[in-house]
Amino acid sequence: MRTALVIGTGLIGTSIALALAGRGVQVYLRDEDADQARTAAALGAGADKEPDGPVELAVVAVPPAYAAEALAAAQRAGVARGYIDVASVKGGPRRALEEAGGDLTSYIGTHPMAGSERSGPLAATADLFEGRPWVLTPTPVTDTEVLNLALELVALCRAVPVVMDADAHDRAVALVSHTPQLVSSLVAARLQHADETAVRLCGQGIRDVTRIAASDPAMWIDILSANPGPVADVLSEVAADLDGTVKALRALEAADAAGTAGVEDVLRRGNAGRDRVPGKHGAAPAEYEIVTVLISDEPGQLGRVFADAGRAGVNIEDVRIEHATGQQAGRMQLMVEPQAAPALTAALRERGWALRQ
Question: Where is the ACT domain (predicted)?
């Protein structure tokens, strides 16, 4: 691929443009907000101008409600040989494009399974998609050349291609992406008017659960409006579990031992579900050993820990940082392969780090 046009320079569009530009593709940027396109260009994502002629691939990175309209307009203008969108739902935009008279042979719907609670070009990174699934939803009439262009894009972004039916994709993301956003927001909403004393007790658990509740509401209204049925289906199942759990807790409150079974059931089913969540780079979940390091809130602390781990020849598989409430200190949890934990523990202690079990 030598040329591409990215239409929409938010987080996803700019991240794609950065990845392509970093691998030698001439990228052109288009956005209704000219300032946003200029910002993306200033970051090195490409040129905020129109190409001289048709490019090889047009990437439409706009909200789902506008994807079909943008695709149809781009096809009518003949700006590219192939067209993809990266909206987080796939069935609706494909049907809308077909109804608008769009050409399904030159189009393939895609969805990179990566993102952030932050939005806009300033949140973009060239490695956003590295190792992440990137769903492709070709139709029976999708041209092979267009499919190959989409696969090349995925490879240039160093993502992992996954081919799915569009409607099956929408049901899947309702479960693994859209419902978690709403559940996170529901939990975070309990904190809005909570007593300050309770809020000060927030630890890593509540931070983990509510992290994505910081996402832009306008963006999520667009996404949820494009996939309301499947999300409602999943939430109805969650609501049934919540109702059963409430009844079990009320039974426990009344000293009825029968409530234990209900609570244990949902906890054990949660264990079983969590075990199925892929681990690092989409591989099967791993049982890592956790080495906890006490760190102070000073410049360079995190870098020193990583450097010392590197000198010990230990690869850090994952990391989590928990700040101590009201203190300029925290705990850094380093997740490593079990066989590497003793060497890392010894090396960090030798270099003066305070560790906790």
Answer: 290-357
For the stretch 174-198, pLDDT in tens is 999 999 999 999 999 999 999 999 9
Mind listing the domains of the chain with CATH numbers?
3-164 (3.40.50.720), 170-275 (1.10.3660.10), 289-356 (3.30.70.260)
String of DSSP letters for 148-209: HHHHHHHHHTT-EEEE--HHHHHHHHIIIIIHHHHHHHHHHHTTTTS-HHHHTT--HHHHHH
Write down how long the chain is.
Answer: 357
Inter-residue contact 188 to 202 (CB < 8 Å) = no
Task: Decide: 132 and 159 in contact? Cβ < 8 Å.
Answer: yes
CB of 334 closer than 8 Å to CB of 290: yes
- The set of residues, in sequence order, having a beta carbon less than 8 Å from that of 234 and lying 6+ positions away, is 174, 175, 178, 179
**How far is 126 from 114, CA to CA, in rounded Å?**
12
- Cα 147 to Cα 261: distance, rounded to the nearest angstrom: 51
